[in-house]
């Protein structure tokens, strides 16, 4: 029994060595099979490409301005300094011309006005009596019953009382203005834009309690450089994007200042936008786009596919599985599109992703994705001109 066991030991050892060697060979083979025998520099690089689009481009100017109401007024006291009694409106309220917006505590002004009116009545009564006395003395003077000097003195007194009466009436008018200033009314039909004072606050002349705006017509106001003076003539079509709402409206230049600002050398421009439903928020930002020149034929590519430096754009064009680094004149940019000279043939495959790791003449594995220029005029509009060189 012991002899049989001794004979099996070498056999088991040999079997174990064979198993170990087989496992080692298997592992080596598996590792070798996964090693890339091709150099990375020789493998084509994966990139994403689009087909350059044939389209037209028209140069444009973009300006930033402010949407202003047609009329705007700050309503507050003009003559007196008093406490605010009531404020009857809040922002957003629609008001009519003459509607009461706020009242002021004008008891003191009212009392002063009554005192001045009483003084005026007293002076008027005194002046009437002196005038009657002067008329009677004048009749006695004709009969020689009175001294002419006395008559003249009486007439002078009558004229003096009359002057005092006129002065008191003027003072009464000023007091009346102060009393009328205690009731603040809407100067025109519109809406309340701001309310800056509440009841109990002390206000002085020039302090705005509320502001009123008229939005039936909104004015888009902006300034342009003097070099663009001819590009913004009256009637020039414009596209206006309202930043607050994201909406885009079409209008025209309504008026242009004949003079530039002497400090900034810019010209003031206004465009009237009818807004009967009062949907445009005023005193907000607007972006104006004005097209200039004539449409020209171009080749469009995504802006992120081109490396633009000044008036030149560098792109990678794929031809026969090889990427070629080429430079073309830039005719313009709009939205997410770059418009290049037609020396870049429409339909050329332009690299959009992976171009920053490419070298000129490198082999690529291209994956094409769709591309549409949604921000430009379609071909077939106005006849395109030759691209400027």
Please tell me about this protein's structure.
The chain is an alpha+beta fold. Among the domains are: 46-57 and 296-368, conserved putative lor/sdh protein from methanococcus maripaludis s2 fold; 107-180; 219-281, Beta Barrel (Elongation Factor Tu (Ef-tu), domain 3), CATH 2.40.30.170. Helix content is 26%, strand content 38%. The protein has three helices and 22 strands. The chain has helices at 2-33, 107-142, 148-180, and strands at 45-51, 53-57, 60-75, 82-87, 94-95, 100-104, 183-185, 190-195, 202-203, 210-225, 237-242, 248-252, 255-260, 266-274, 284-291, 296-302, 307-309, 312-319, 322-334, 337-340, 349-353, 362-368. The strands form three sheets. Strands 3, 5, 8, 10, 11, 12, 13, 14 and 15 form a nine-stranded antiparallel sheet that branches. Strand 18 and strand 19 form a beta hairpin. Helix 2 (107-142) runs antiparallel to helix 3. The termini are far apart.
Keyword list:
389 residues; alpha+beta; conserved putative lor/sdh protein from methanococcus maripaludis s2 fold; Elongation Factor Tu (Ef-tu), domain 3; nine-stranded antiparallel β-sheet; five-stranded mixed beta barrel; 38% strand; elongated; disordered C terminus
Reconstruct the topology from this structure:
Blueprint: H1 2-33, E1 45-51, E2 53-57, E3 60-75, E4 82-87, E5 94-95, E6 100-104, H2 107-142, H3 148-180, E7 183-185, E8 190-195, E9 202-203, E10 210-225, E11 237-242, E12 248-252, E13 255-260, E14 266-274, E15 284-291, E16 296-302, E17 307-309, E18 312-319, E19 322-334, E20 337-340, E21 349-353, E22 362-368
Parallel strand pairs: 1-22
Antiparallel strand pairs: 1-21, 2-16, 3-10, 3-15, 4-6, 4-9, 5-8, 6-7, 8-10, 10-14, 11-12, 11-15, 13-14, 16-20, 17-18, 18-19, 18-21, 19-20, 19-22
Helix pairs in contact: 2-3
